[in-house]
Write a structure and sequence with these properties.
The protein is mostly beta strands and about 375 residues long. The chain has one domain (about 5-355): YVTN repeat-like/Quinoprotein amine dehydrogenase (Methylamine Dehydrogenase, Chain H, 7 Propeller), CATH 2.130.10. Helices cover about 0% and strands about 50% of the residues. It has strands at about 25, 30-35, 40-45, 50-55, 65-70, 75, 90-95, 100-110, 115-120, 125-130, 140-145, 150-155, 160-165, 170-175, 180-185, 195-200, 205-210, 215-220, 235-245, 250-255, 260-265, 270-275, 280-285, 295-300, 305-310, 315-320, 325-330, 340-345, 345-355. Strands 15, 16, 17, 18, 19, 20, 21 and 22 form an eight-stranded mixed beta sheet that branches. The model is unreliable at about 1-25 and about 360-364 (pLDDT under 50).
Amino acid sequence: MKSFLFLRGLPIGVLLVSMGIVRVVHAQNIEKFDVPGASETAPEAVNESGRIIGKFVNSDRSTHAFVRSPFGRLTTFDAPSTGDDPTWATTIPLAINAAGEIAGAVSGVHDGVLGGRGFVRDVHGRITEFDVAPGIVETRAQTINDQGWVGGTFVDASYQQHGFVRSPWGAIRTFEMPAIVPFVRQVRPNGTVIGVSEQPLGFFHGFVREPNGTVSIFEGPDLNPAAGGLVCPRCGGTLVTAATASGESVGYYVADYNIIRGFVRRLDGTVSNLDVPGATSTWPEALNLEGSIAGEYTSPAPVGSRNFLLLRNGTLESFDVPGGDLVQVSALDSENRVIGTFTDAAGRHGFIRRPRAACGHFHF
């Protein structure tokens, strides 16, 4: 995902954490990249081999998709249903699996009507679009696992949002929650779905839905149900930002005094806090199968947003993008390369940050 950049301006207090001994390493090994000619380049996801997918915006403000190989080769593509008005034409890839299959969303205006469909792009570049059902306003494919199962959300004719799972051979089943489903983060090989549900007025929860329909709701350990500021001043709760096929997930939530805290949820259901020591806020955004985590945090002195990589062995690395502002982590591959975006005077760009070995441990 896809965190919310305007969170950075919210007033949040100082976290008082005691997480063990840590040496923060300020490592700078960053490669910047753009789609040639684009006014905006935004990576969305990466697979285990380092293949990056994302979107880019042209001068006419139309949005297109790209794939970047581990060696830097860029390939651009569009799904067919982008419509007849380039201003509204969007192809947004949101997930890629180990084989290189891509899932995402395409939207466009057809005969004056704006609509959206899900798509899957196979390893040969062939694109299959789909709707959850006839009459659906929008279908959005948000994740694809290594077995080819796709998870996502759809908006029905009454503009209510729900979840779905699509098999590799195209069969679709939908599911309901006590609240709407804005995000599906993972479909595990056994059919378990990990995602986010949202109650009216913007209160979020993490959920795990088993294949038999059993749903478990989970929250951050110190959640304050009355506090806001998660994605808007009045919004609260727990937001899952990433999950793996093994069943682990990360995200952030609102604690007392409107403090934003990170969390890790293990396969056994235990949820632990994850706060960068000394930070006034922590936003875990990405998680890989090895258990490494990357995201953003806010430091009190000097005040500002920074980025972190927490390796599974406890090493914590802090980094910035030189000359960049509004740095946002999007994904993390199996080699602990952090993928994300930053802005400067020329616009929005992609970056790849490679890790460096360091000493120090961070226990959570």
